[in-house]
Every structure is written in structure tokens, then in C-alpha cells.
Amino acid sequence: MEMESKRIKFICVIVPVLFILCCQIAVAQEYPTKAVVIVIPRPPGGASELTTRAVTSVAADYLGQPIINRLMPGGNGAIGCDFVAKALPDGYTLLTGELGWNTALPAIEGRAKGPDDMVAVCRINYNPTIICAKADAPFKTWKQLMAWVQENPGKLTVGTPGPWSPPDMLWKLIAKQTGIKIRIVPFDGGGTMFTALLGGHIDVGHARPIMYYPYRGTGKIVPLLFLDEARHPQLPDVPTGIEEGLSGQINVVSRPWVGVMAPKGTPRPILEKLSVAFKKMVEDKTVIAMLKQFGDDINYLGHDEFTKYWREEYELYKELGKTFKK
Predict the structure, then answer these.
(1) By the 8 A CB rule, do 275 and 302 touch?
(2) Which of 56, 91, 188, 246 is an S-S bond match for 241, by CB 3.0 to 4.6 Å?
(3) Which residue, 77, 69, 110, is CA-closest to 189?
(4) Same domain for 135 and 160?
(5) 133 and 163: one domain?
(6) Residue ending a domain, choose from 253, 271, 299
(7) Do 93 and 54 belong to one domain?
(8) Beta bridge partner(s), residue 120
């Protein structure tokens, strides 16, 4: 009697699970049957938008349906994140993920959406930061900037895409490590910050290669520092942060990435199908040529690898946030 009762309980548990799995597999085999929307939670002109548009331009070739880019700025990325997190977990609403609104903001302020709220599809790339100055700035190198700030404390205006964005944290760490006094001016995205830099409304800002390259050689902005382990091959005269004595946490926050996220509960077969499709997109010769033209390098991570990377980075930023709250 006891044995029969256990068998009935087992059947009652396993049959619904198998039914759900079969349904998920069936749905994934048909998916997608219509266009997919990817939300970019920033204003136009930023690196995340440029990268997303380039990669998804060939989506129909590898996913079988187009991916429609939808801009949804606000809240330093939080509005778009919340929208996608609340969407049906059916693979038809995705998010352009980034270090700022998917790691830094949720880890430090509890806003936007982190790895407890969404699931990773894949990482497309990571882009080290180029610190740039307006063309008529009284300094043309990082050493000159540091000397000028020491002589003019509190006068340097530095633009960022918003509070707790990687560039915002970067400058707070630089100020803490070097002792300089600066004025940080928050914008609602990298695109608007970069426009302000080009217009001479701020002294210093940042760019990723995909944002900077269209202006290379135009004399409109001056690159001062490249924040990576080695100099960029197309910017051989621009020193790294390490060469200029910046180290430790500064090099952690200066490596933003662009990825793809989905609502929590999205079936694994759909996540895997999306991950494979995006891998093919970033390997497409047209996409590679498009991104290389702007100095953007692919650094792809699939679903499982990126899930692990994202979680580890999130925990690191929780610790890093304590640095600013002491």
C-alpha cells in the first residue's frame, strides 16, 4: 500500500514536469513565428544602440524572423529593464543588456534588473573605455590633464551616462585614487553625453571605440587614455591607464559590455535557440566589417558562460559599491 502511494505521488509529480518540458520543446521548435523586439534602454547614439543595430540587421537570416530595435530611455536604463522583465517570457521581448543597468545599478542601488531578475541570452562584446577631451581643452594628454586639474581644482567638468554607470564609477575611483577634485555631470545616456562633449559643453567624457571612430582624425575631440591591458592597435599613441599609474578597481569598471537578456522564466530551449542565432549574427561577415569599421570587436559568450560571468561580476560590484558608501 505504501509502495503504491509513493508510485502515485511520483507519477503526479513527474507527469506534469514531462508535459511542461514537452510543451517547451514544441514551442521552441516553432519559435519564432513573428518578429522579435529588442528594447534598448538608452537614448539614440550610444554604443549599445550602435552595436545592437549592427548585429540585429542580419537577424532574419539566422533566426528566421527580424529583430526590431525599440529605444526606451529613462532612469539610467531602469525603465527599459523593468519593461522587459515584466514581459511574457516567450522569447519575443528581449533587452540590450549592459554592465551599467544590468550589473552596477542593481548591485549598488537595487534599481534596474540584475541576474536575480532576468536571464542571460549571450554577451556580444566588451569594449574598453577611451577617455576623451574636447578639442580646445587646455590639455592634450592625460599627464597634462592631471597637471591642469591640480592647478584648477574643481573646475574640470566630466560627463557620464548617469549615476552608478561604469564611467561614473570610473571617475569617482580616479578622483579617489589620485586626489583630484572634479565636477561630474550626469546625462541620460552615452549618446547625449558624447554630443555634449562634441559641442564643448563639458571638458572631458568617454567613448567606446564604436562611438569614437567616426570622429577620429577630425580634430573635434582628443583621446587621452585607453583603459585596457594593452594599447588599442588603432590608437598606438594613446597610453593605457596602467601605463599612467591607474590600477586595481579602475580597470574593472572601464570594460563595459553589450549583451542580450530575456525575462525570467523564458524556456531554456528558446534561450539556446537565441544564443545560437546571435552567435551566427556576430560571425556574419557583413556585421564583422560593419563593427570593425568603428573599432568594435566581438567578444561573444554563450548562454551558460555569460550567465556565470554576469553573476560573478554582479557579486564583485556589490563589494565595489561598499567602497563608495564608506
Answers:
(1) yes
(2) 246
(3) 77
(4) yes
(5) yes
(6) 253
(7) yes
(8) 261
Rounded-to-integer distance, Cα 135 and Cα 222, Å: 6
pLDDT category at 21 given cuts 50, 70, 90 is: very low
End-to-end CA distance of the chain: 63
Range of the domain at 275: 33-126+257-325
Judging by beta carbons within 10 Å of its beta carbon (0-12, 13-18, 19+), is residue 153 exposed, middle or buried? exposed
> Can you give the CATH number for the domain in which 291 is found?
3.40.190.150
* Cβ within 8 Å of residue 293, ≥6 positions away: 213
Alpha-carbon distance 167 to 303, whole Å?
26
pLDDT value of residue 319 = 84
Does 22 reside within a domain? no
Q: Which of 253, 278, 301 is the last residue of a domain?
A: 253
Contact 224, 131 (CB under 8 A): yes
Burial of 261 (0-12, 13-18, 19+ CB in 10 A): buried
Mean of pLDDT values over 61-85: 95
| 145-175 residue pLDDT tens | 999 999 999 999 999 988 878 888 889 888 8
